From TrEMBL:
Residues 48-243 form the ER-bound oxygenase mpaB/mpaB'/Rubber oxygenase catalytic domain. The lineage of its organism: Bacteria, Bacillati, Actinomycetota, Actinomycetes, Propionibacteriales. This is ER-bound oxygenase mpaB/mpaB'/Rubber oxygenase catalytic domain-containing protein. It comes from Nocardioides thalensis. PANTHER family: ER-BOUND OXYGENASE MPAB_MPAB'_RUBBER OXYGENASE CATALYTIC DOMAIN-CONTAINING PROTEIN, PTHR36124. InterPro entries: MPAB, MPAB/Lcp_cat_dom. One of its GO terms (molecular function) is oxidoreductase activity. Pfam families: MPAB_Lcp_cat. It comes from the Bacteria.
């Protein structure tokens, strides 16, 4: 079948009603590696906002448990688009995210900004490095998906359009990007973890490539060295060559879940969504502050199991 398989299927769906299915198709079949990379960079750039990066540093999770923190975040965010928002798995994933957020004092503005990166950064990544562009239907579905996620996280004043998310993200970064020593520690720990996903002889090049993919405001906020024009050019050339190759390959017929990828390493025997994340606040950042009302209990949620594949 032509390489248009998933594009055609997504464009036959209603982005205002079928947004979960469209996002599932994009993530599990069409742009698995691209969206994994893009969402990792989306979260990474939020550390350059000092109120976010400093809080994450104070929790001590990146210094002490970076791999587990990466795995838990990815798996909890995966559950709603794999299983649906109203499935037991989707509800458990979002409940755990909200329960963790309530342990810290997080502003609605910061939450809204982080949400905007989930919409804008993946589209910009695919615009630059994807083997095709997203269709209008797929962009609209992505907006609707993250509006729903944000609503279930209690985030207020969520933009209604892609342009609204884009302006929110860009304006917030212009106002707030700045150096913070704690945020730099979180960024360093994250880059070190990303380096470990590749064989040791490649790690120095991977680190330089990661910095080459950062825009100048982001790199300056962390005070990272510019890897230089040759590294930037080589990085761009490599990603564009990959895109050209992918255009020649057939559409994927088998989904790829996070647990199928070598990046998720904390749960080789499978995992229980209800047990992911943390259940007590860590470090100096501990304080009440989740935007979603909860019953006055510290009990763990009811168990919701997931198979090793993450399906």
């Amino acid at each position: 079948m032509a390489k248009t398989l998933w594009r055609d299927r997504n464009d036959a769906l209603d982005p205002d009603a079928d947004y979960v299915e469209i996002v599932r198709n994009l993530t599990l079949y069409e742009f698995t590696w691209d969206l994994t990379q893009a969402l990792s960079f989306a979260l990474f750039r939020t550390y350059a906002v000092p109120s976010i990066g400093r809080l994450l540093d104070q929790t001590q999770q990146f210094a002490q448990h970076c791999q587990k923190r990466y795995d838990d975040t990815a798996l909890l965010l995966e559950a709603p688009f794999v299983h649906g928002f109203d499935s037991p798995e989707g509800r458990t994933g979002i409940r755990r995210i909200n329960q963790m957020h309530r342990m810290y004092d997080i502003s609605n503005d910061d939450m809204r900004y982080v949400l905007s990166t989930f919409v804008v950064v993946p589209k910009r990544w695919i615009d630059a490095w994807g083997w095709r562009q997203l269709t209008d239907n797929e962009i609209r579905a992505t907006v609707n998906y993250y509006r729903e996620l944000g609503s279930r996280m209690g985030i207020r004043e969520i933009p209604e359009t892609y342009d609204g998310f884009m302006h929110l993200m860009d304006d917030y970064e212009r106002r707030h990007f700045a150096f913070d020593a704690g945020a730099r520690r979180v960024a360093d720990a994250t880059l070190a973890l990303l380096d470990e996903f590749y064989p040791r002889p490649l790690r120095k090049a991977v680190n330089a490539t990661s910095r080459a993919l950062m825009d100048e405001p982001l790199r300056e906020a962390f005070r990272y060295d510019d890897p230089g024009p040759r590294v930037r050019a080589a990085t761009r050339a490599g990603l564009r060559a990959r895109a050209r190759l992918l255009r020649l390959l057939p559409s994927k017929r088998k989904p790829t879940y996070l647990q199928d990828m070598n990046r998720i390493r904390s749960y080789p025997g499978g995992y229980d969504l209800a047990e992911l994340g943390t259940f007590t606040p860590f470090g100096a950042a501990a304080a009440a502050g989740c935007p979603v009302p909860h019953a006055a209990t510290d009990e763990r949620p009811a168990a919701s199991t997931a198979p090793t594949t993450g399906a």
